[in-house]
Amino acid sequence: MSEYRKYLPLDDELYDYALAHTTAPDDLQARLIARTADLGDSRRMQVAHSQALFMTFLTRSMGARTALEIGTFTGYSALAIARGLPADGTLVACDVSEDWTSIARETWSEAGLSGRIDLRIGPALETVGSLPAEPPFDLVFIDADKESYIEYYEAVLPRL
């Protein structure tokens, strides 16, 4: 059996092609992207639009009803996950910044998704530790301080 590639390297040409054939951000997403860009270097913490599209697709296709996000920033990924949840679904979003998440709250409200997103401000490990063990989460997205990923993973794994 011949060898095959397990991944496809993404050079500039392929990346440009993928972006040209990806659904463009809607007006709300475009405004959130622009508002986040105004934050300067911190803007790099926002997920890429293509990642957000995948997160909505993944959430919806797996039938997730409950989700947990560790690291919310200005709310682009939470918006994506919440859009993939059913009307009675819930996303618990964890972050430590009232400033950044105030942008998120405005966006979620405008999207009509505030009722699906339960924002918790405080250290994520404390927040996760305070959550009931049941019901478990169907989906967890960890995108916070990289040095704590192992601790986040270990804290959420029993809750999946």
Describe the structure concisely for a colleague.
With 160 residues, the chain is α/β, with parallel strands linked by helices.
Word description of this protein:
By secondary structure, this protein is α/β, with parallel strands linked by helices. It is 44% helix and 12% strand. The chain contains 7 helices and 4 strands; from the N terminus they run H-H-H-E-H-E-H-E-H-E-H. The chain has a 4-stranded parallel sheet, sandwiched between helices. Helix 5 links the parallel strand 2 and strand 3. Helix 2 packs antiparallel against helix 5, helix 3 runs parallel beside helix 4 and helix 6 runs parallel beside helix 7. The mean pLDDT is 93.
What's the topology here?
Layout: H1 12-20, H2 27-37, H3 49-61, E1 66-70, H4 76-84, E2 90-95, H5 98-111, E3 117-121, H6 124-130, E4 139-142, H7 149-156
Parallel strand pairs: 1-2, 1-4, 2-3
**Beta strand count:** 4
What kind of sheet is the major sheet? 4 strands, parallel
Number of helices: 7
Q: How would you describe the shape?
A: globular
Rg from Cα: 17 Å
CA(first)-CA(last) distance: 37 Å
Spatial strand arrangement across the major sheet:
3-2-1-4
Question: How does the helix and strand content classify structurally?
Answer: alpha/beta
Mean pLDDT, as a whole number?
93
What proportion of the residues form beta strands (DSSP E)? 5-15%
Order of helices and strands: HHHEHEHEHEH
Helix proportion range: 40-55%
